[in-house]
Automatic annotation (TrEMBL):
One of its GO terms (cellular component) is plasma membrane. The chain crosses the membrane at residues 12-32, 114-133, 139-161, 286-306. Keywords: Cell membrane, Membrane, Transmembrane, Transmembrane helix. It is a multi-pass membrane protein. It comes from Pseudokineococcus lusitanus. This is Tight adherence protein C. The keyword Cell membrane applies. The lineage of its organism: Bacteria, Bacillati, Actinomycetota, Actinomycetes, Kineosporiales. It is found in: Cell membrane. Residues 181-304 form the Type II secretion system protein GspF domain.
């Protein structure tokens, strides 16, 4: 079979697959085969309720792709539920989203994973098509390549979330000593705990100042300052920040000098940062030995031994 005929056969197979998938989706979405949701069962009893104002909608549907979005919404919802069943870990995802400081829901993140998975399927399909056109590989490895591309896209999205959380916490760790020093200076100047937090959150920029603004918003919404600070510590996994919150909570509840507590916390944070820097430097030093031992040293030995071997060979 020539290459052109093989490409046409693969194209026909792809068109047949797409047509079969479309027919299956049309059959599954027929009214008598579709499962009735709770919203559809309750809707006839609440039709007389006053509809909410359009100004109160969080995300009004506008734009030229509204019809496409409505058509793809059921398929996307089914895909999100499938990813949720396979991966699970809803609590872990919610925890990482809180650590990232985003108001994204778990369902929205699962939808992003579905989109990444579709991109991985497309990349795997393109790679499979190139392999089929160039080498004529078997069908089973090509299908496995496409499936691995989709799974890789989903897992890559989850890895990106973990990496983003780790980078954000590294920035917060770098900002923490400065923020603690500024809080100590504000308290020493005569301001209270809330006033010092407001001043630092207003004058500073960064991840930690954003968390302080969120903490102050929770305190204004009715929570106590200790509860709001404890919520900030729970949203992160930084032990230094947790100790800082505990120290501030004890100082506020028992009336101990807050400035001394903040200075001690800032000094502890700087010492911990110094230890982390020394540990990272030690790891980098060990990593630098790898090219020296496996690349530079063999080349040096070859340059030192080869002239002697050449002289011995000439002598023989």
């Amino acid at each position: 079979m020539s290459a052109g005929a093989e490409v046409w056969s693969w194209g026909g197979a792809g068109l047949g697959l797409v047509g079969g998938l479309g027919l299956w989706l049309a059959l599954v979405r027929l009214p008598f085969l579709r499962r009735t949701s709770v919203e559809d069962r309750v809707a006839p009893y609440v039709r007389d309720a006053v509809p909410p104002s359009r100004l109160l909608r969080e995300d009004p549907s506008r734009g030229p792709l509204v019809v496409v979005e409505r058509l793809l919404a059921p398929v996307m919802a089914d895909a999100v539920r499938a990813v949720e069943r396979v991966l699970g870990g809803r609590a872990g995802v919610r925890r990482r989203l809180d650590q990232l400081g985003r108001r994204t829901s778990v369902e929205e993140f699962r939808a992003q994973q579905v989109v990444w998975g579709i991109g991985g399927l497309a990349a795997g399909g393109a790679a499979a098509a190139l392999l089929a056109a160039s080498r004529g590989a078997a069908v089973v490895p090509l299908v496995l390549l496409v499936l691995l591309g989709g799974a890789g896209g989903v897992l890559l999205c989850d890895w990106w979330l973990t990496r983003a959380v780790r980078r954000r916490e590294e920035r917060m760790t770098a900002e923490f000593p400065t923020v603690a020093e500024l809080l100590a200076l504000s308290v020493s100047a005569g301001e209270g705990a809330v006033g010092a937090l407001e001043r630092v959150a207003r004058t500073c920029a960064g991840e930690l100042s954003g968390e302080l603004r969120r903490t102050l918003a929770e305190a204004r919404a009715g929570a106590s300052l200790v509860q709001a600070l404890q919520g900030m510590a729970d949203r992160t996994s930084l032990p230094g920040l947790a100790r800082f919150v505990d120290g501030v909570a004890v100082a506020v509840e028992r009336g101990t000098p807050l400035a001394e507590v903040l200075r001690a916390q800032a000094q502890d944070a700087r010492d911990e940062g110094r230890r982390a820097l020394m540990e990272r430097g030690g790891k980098q030093e060990v990593a630098m030995m790898v090219p020296v031992v496996f690349l530079v040293l063999p080349v040096t030995v070859v340059f030192a031994v080869y002239p002697g071997l050449a002289v011995l060979r000439l002598g023989l």
